[in-house]
Amino acid sequence: MPRPITLKIDVSKIDKSHLYKGAKGTYLDVAIWPNKEGAGQYGDTHYAVQQVSKDKREAGVRGPIIGNATVPFEGMTQTEPPAKATKPTDPDLDVAPDDLPF
Questions:
Q1: What is the pLDDT of residues 45-77, one digit of tens each?
Q2: What is the DSSP code (8-state) at residue 37?
Q3: What's the rounded Cα separation, in Å, for the pair 34 and 77?
């Protein structure tokens, strides 16, 4: 049986000015991001950030970190940075030829 994704939110950190009314209630947008250093002390693999409106994001406003999450799926616990593209090297070009006619 698969294990659930668990999320712990410190509700005292929620910025209530970013809550919004919808047709069926009041909503809070949350984004879950992987921890850069891997799992934390308590096994948390991700952190939760309160989202702000597009206008505020474009103005440089960032939502507060409001909690953390544990994602138990293999391959979902840490995202790998993309591999850097490397140029193919030609071993003959690494050393200057000493038999040039000029």
A1: 899 999 988 888 899 988 899 999 988 765 544
A2: T
A3: 7
Q: What does the block give as tokens for 67?
A: 């909690």
- 48 conformational bin, left if phi > 0, alpha if psi -120 to 50, beta if neither: beta
pTM for the predicted model, two decimal places: 0.61
Helices in the chain by DSSP H: which ranges?
Answer: 54-58
C-beta neighbour count of 33 within 10 angstroms: 12
List the one residue out of 101, 42, 94 whose CA is nearest residue 68: 42
**Sheet strands (E) in the chain:** 6-9, 20-22, 25-27, 30-34, 46-50, 65-70
